[in-house]
Amino acid sequence: MSRLNVPVAVRWADLDAYGHVNNVAVLRLLEEARIAAFWRHAEARDAGLWPTAVLDAGPGATTHTLVARSEIEYLLPLGYRRDPVTVEMWIGHLGGASLDVCYQVTAQVEGTRTVYVHASTTLVLLDATTGRPRRIDEVERAAWEPYLEEPVPMRRRSPRRS
């Protein structure tokens, strides 16, 4: 089981009136981790930091991504902390033109790993010229398959009755 562990700083501006990271700010933390792990940036092309960073970023990129779906479960309130949280990521599903990125936002609390958030994002790869979905290519699939495991466990709501 291989996971990407991306440190992301919690900013003071991420807090809401209740003193914990706002739900919208959690989406930003996930986005920051996802961008670091999956997109190649011009200044980091040869750094070799993330083996999953195979999508080109910036002007001239041939692939765009569309967030088709996001699902988040907030398990515990996450307050401000000086140390970054760890966003653990893996691939829960690798399809023809889409992938599900799974997340756990964790931090060490008194020496114990604590999970604050479970989440999942469905990304669709788009041809930048046409805007239409495109197939995951061999390079991308080879980079992402080692991180393929069961999707994040989410509690499902039962249907509401009228």
UniProtKB/TrEMBL annotation:
Superkingdom of origin: Bacteria
GO molecular function: fatty acyl-CoA hydrolase activity
SUPFAM superfamilies per the UniProt record, alphabetical: Thioesterase/thiol ester dehydrase-isomerase
Any matching Pfam family: 4HBT_2
Xref: InterPro entries: 4-hydroxybenzoyl-CoA_TE, HotDog_dom_sf
Coiled coil: none
Protein name: Acyl-CoA thioesterase
